[in-house]
Amino acid sequence: MRTTVSAPTPVVVAIDGPSGTGKSSTSKGVAARLGMAYLDTGAQYRAITWWMLRQGIDPADTAAVAAAAEKPEIVSGTDPLAPTITVDGTDVSAPIRGAEVTGAVSAVSAVPEIRARITGLQRSIAEGAAASGPGIVVEGRDIGTTVLPDADLKIFLTAAPEVRAARRSGELGGPQDAARLAATRADLVRRDTADSSRTASPLARAGDAVELDTGDLTLEQVVERVVAMIEERRSA
Ligand SMILES: Nc1ncnc2c1ncn2[C@@H]1O[C@H](COP(=O)(O)OP(=O)(O)OP(=O)(O)O)[C@@H](O)[C@H]1O
Ligand SMILES: Nc1ccn([C@@H]2O[C@H](COP(=O)(O)O)[C@@H](O)[C@H]2O)c(=O)n1
After folding, report:
1. Residue 164 maps to a domain
2. d(C-alpha 23, C-alpha 212), whole Å
3. What is the pTM of this model?
4. Residue 13 and residue 39: Cα distance in Å, rounded?
5. pLDDT tens readout for residues 28-72
6. Which of 103, 126, 113 is closest to 41 using CA atoms?
7. In this structure, is residue 4 part of a structural domain?
8. For residue 42, what are the domain limits?
9. CA 45 – CA 143 distance, rounded (Å)
10. In a domain, 1, yes or no
11. What is the CATH number of the domain that holds 169?
12. In whole angstroms, what is the distance from residue 31 CA to residue 79 CA?
């Protein structure tokens, strides 16, 4: 006798939150566990910022950034075990994590023409993944509010700035002195303030998002909780 195993219902999951709350690590872990696709939308904003800087465009020159918004080709690979990001065919996964891009990305991502361009890309990737597999986990700042307002599950991650700064400093290696922690904390808070106060699609928790404070949880525990929520939605 042959048993039929039905494919899991495709699920679109939006994970938002401030910098360093664990969005990328959680989203990759969840997507890998459930065989889903994964989209790092911050990497897309970083990639377009990298291109602007390479072109000599001043990130503070809103008109110049807007005029160039459609020019670079940005391609995201959505395998959670090996996510990729290219600009005009160049792998930019390393340079987009540098201080220059990190310092400029909030200015570029606040420009409405940039948001319209990147939001369009994000929606088409999410649609494709939901149509052809078990779904996608999309992480960013405005996924639940603007990019995918009809997502099946929305999560908003939080953690105190001190916790986030300690995690980030640990990631960078080297001595964990007070001055370094304070500088890392200030950098996170500066970016959160810029991202939440912009007019176009700011960092915000969607009204129907589940808020999860990751401060006292290990990464494994956070992944476990999100997986449980997805399985609950699937069986509902
Ligand atoms: N629950 C957790 N417990 C301990 N460390 C964690 C936890 N979640 C994430 N981390 C660590 O915190 C750091 C930041 O995590 P991650 O890059 O996933 O955050 P993020 O929200 O995607 O940040 P950003 O918005 O700046 O891209 C990483 O070093 C990660 O390993
Ligand atoms: N949905 C999003 C995602 C990101 N941004 C902007 O990109 C910056 C970098 O994001 P990381 O997650 O890689 O740290 C972030 O500070 C935002 O300016 C965004 O606007 N919307």
Report:
1. yes
2. 11
3. 0.96
4. 10
5. 999 999 999 999 999 999 999 999 999 999 999 999 999 999 999
6. 126
7. no
8. 11-231
9. 13
10. no
11. 3.40.50.300
12. 9
**Under a CB-based contact definition with an 8 Å cutoff, are residues 13 and 139 in contact?**
no
Structure tokens at 224: 């476990």
CB of 41 within 6 A of ligand 2: the answer is yes
List pocket residues of ligand 1, CB cut-off 6 Å: 17, 19-25, 42, 167-168, 171, 214, 217-219, 222
Looking at ligand 2, which atom is closest to the CA of residue 96? Answer: 13
Q: Measured at the alpha carbon of residue 214, what is the angle toward residues 144 and 13, in degrees to the nearest 5? A: 25
| Paired tokens of 34 | 């459930």
178-204 tens-digit pLDDT: 888 899 999 999 999 999 999 999 999
Total count of domains within the chain: 1
Residue 236 counted as domain residue? no
The tokens for 26 are: 């959680």
